[in-house]
Amino acid sequence: MLISLLFDNPLLFVSAILAAIIAFTFHEFAHAAAATLLGDDTAKQERRLSLNPFAHLDVVGFSLLLVSGFGWAKPVPYNPYGLKTRFGGNLLIPLAGPAMNFVQSIIAASALRLFAAASYSPDHFFVQFFGLFLLINLLLGFFNLIPIPPLDGSRIMLSLFPDRYEESKVHFERSGPFLLILIIILDASSGFNFFAHFLNVLSHFVSAFMS
């Protein structure tokens, strides 16, 4: 549990929470900024066009983040009929969040390379922070590209389908969260552990930048 770090390694706990908050905030801000630039002001009216973490905080999602290390922020709303280009908007708005995570990953990896060149210790606060920041952003970016609702990948995929499939898309969006939970449970209980293996791969990748 992430909350256990508060007692075992308070500095690492602070680094993890701070990294997660920043990653989630910029992810949701990117969605809001993309929608606003494309002509829909729903996010702006609901004060989601903001870098204030509290504008995007979901109490349940943040609580689960503390307990399990897995959480979420409030999704950014937008009106597809208010966009300058409906097809392009429905594609670019969901893509903006993961894209922002990958941009932040590049920044974090670059910072780690600089710290490594300066011979900073792996236990240094900045090294731990940017290492976690890199890992969290990579996880958020790749995980959100899974094409299952409510993840961004599903919206990207569904934007490619013509309007005549609207009823099927609505049904898929409603059943998607249950499907996602089922896949995660089956993955963990089957022994295959794809998500755990993927996390392990990313962790090794991040360790290479921290050394």
How would you describe what is shown here?
The protein has 211 residues and is mainly alpha-helical. It has ten helices and no strands. 71% of the residues lie in helices and 0% in strands. It has one domain.
Query: Fraction of residues in helices?
Result: over 70%
Largest sheet: none
> In DSSP terms, counting alpha (H) and pi (I) runs of 4 or more, how many helices?
10
- The geometry reads as globular
Low-confidence stretches: none
Summed up:
This protein has 211 residues and is mostly helical. The protein has one domain (2-210). Helices cover 71% and strands 0% of the residues.
Secondary structure topology:
Elements: H1 5-8, H2 10-37, H3 42-45, H4 53-56, H5 59-68, H6 86-117, H7 125-143, H8 152-158, H9 166-190, H10 194-210
Helix pairs in contact: 2-6, 2-7, 6-7, 6-8, 7-10
List key phrases describing it.
10 helices, 211 residues, single chain, mainly alpha
